[in-house]
Structures are given as structure tokens and as C-alpha cells.
Specification:
Blueprint (H helix, E strand, L loop, with lengths): L19 H10 L8 E5 L24 E5 H8 L9 H4 L4 E2 H6 L8 H23 L2 H19 L9 H7 L25
Antiparallel strand pairs: 1-2, 2-3
Helix pairs in contact: 1-2, 2-5
């Protein structure tokens, strides 16, 4: 597909269906354990003059944005911005992060993989969401506060847990026999090298 935008970023099956980002937010936060709703955006482009590089681990490499992450809350906020091509990759660049930043970044502290991911989410992804939210008009912010308040509260209170959910433990032990959630299409587990199961 040759395009410079994510035409389906604000996907809605039909005008009566919820937007995909709203469904992602609801499914991630409605029942415990609360999960962080993220989009993974795949892209390819010729070149960009200015690359916003915030990585504290690696040198700037534009190919790193070929697989980028963006918060579902950021997508929801961007949907509210009128008169701007919020789905064009050039406009999204300042809001997305290369996927590897989530799991490889040493700039967000030491510690195990879950701690680094959590800190990156807390100190970078939430900051990006807040920056987008502040770009909105006061009336749109009030509307979003009413619409998302319960979800934002749950989301902002997410903490690391001592143990993964039971379905993750079952998968790690090769004991998962049925789909844990009908809305969960894929479950991917990342481990650091040398980490025991």
C-alpha cells in the first residue's frame, strides 16, 4: 500500500460501530488485570528530513520507525483534532516511538525488563498522551474527560504486579488449552536472554 498516512488509524466498521481505539481501551481496562492499550504501526517510507530522536540507547536510524508504538489514548485524542491530517505519518512522528524503545531502552533506568517497560510507559508514553490532550480545545478536553474518566483513572493507576496473569503462566508452562479472552487475538511474551521461565 503506497500512502504516507495510516488511513485506518481511526477505524470504525460502520457508523454504528465503536471506533477501534475505543474498543481497545475498553477491553484493556474493563476487567483485571488492567493492560496498557497500545497500537503497533508498521510503515515504510523513502526519507524524512528531520527525525525526532528521543532514544537514550541507540543512534538515530530512521528504519527504527518502521515498527512504531502509539498509545490507544493518543489515537483517541488525535481523533478529536479537527482540521489537521492527524493520520499522516509526518504528523504522527512526534507521538510515536520505535517499538524497540519499549523493550530495549536503557535510558529509562536499570532493572529487569518489566521495570524498564513500565518506566518507559510512565515517563514517555503518558507524557506524549498529555501533550496531545493539551493541544485540544477546552471543550473537547471536557468532553473527553466525561467519556474516558473512568478508564483514564484505571489506566493511570496501573502498577507492576508480582506475578503475571494466570493465562500468561499457563502459556509459559505450555498448559494454555483455551483462548483466555475472546477479544484477545494474540498473546506474545517477551523475555530477556537467560531469564528463567
Amino acid at each position: 500500500m503506497k500512502t504516507n498516512s495510516f488511513k485506518h488509524l481511526h477505524y470504525q466498521k460502520d457508523k454504528y460501530s465503536p471506533f477501534q481505539c475505543d474498543t481497545l481501551i475498553q477491553n484493556a481496562l474493563q476487567k483485571p488485570p488492567a493492560r496498557i492499550p497500545l497500537y503497533c504501526l508498521y510503515s515504510n517510507w523513502n526519507t524524512f528530513q528531520q527525525l525526532p530522536w528521543k532514544c537514550a540507547t541507540y543512534y538515530p536510524v530512521e528504519e527504527s520507525y518502521g515498527c512504531s508504538i502509539l498509545s490507544a489514548f493518543a489515537v483517541r485524542y488525535l481523533r478529536s483534532i479537527k482540521g489537521r491530517k492527524a493520520t499522516h505519518f509526518r504528523n504522527l512522528l512526534s507521538y510515536v516511538s520505535p517499538w524497540h524503545c519499549l523493550v530495549c531502552c536503557r535510558g529509562y533506568g536499570k532493572g529487569d525488563l518489566p521495570s524498564r517497560v513500565f518506566r518507559y510507559w510512565r515517563e514517555f508514553i503518558l507524557e506524549v498522551e498529555e501533550a496531545i490532550f493539551e493541544e485540544l480545545t477546552p471543550s473537547v478536553r471536557r468532553e473527553l474527560n466525561g467519556e474516558l474518566d473512568g478508564y483514564r483513572q484505571i489506566y493511570n493507576e496501573i502498577e507492576l504486579t508480582e506475578e503475571p496473569p494466570s493465562y500468561v503462566r499457563s502459556l509459559l508452562n505450555n498448559e494454555l488449552e483455551e483462548q483466555p479472552d475472546p477479544n484477545l487475538r494474540t498473546l506474545t511474551i517477551f523475555k530477556e536472554r537467560g531469564e528463567p521461565v
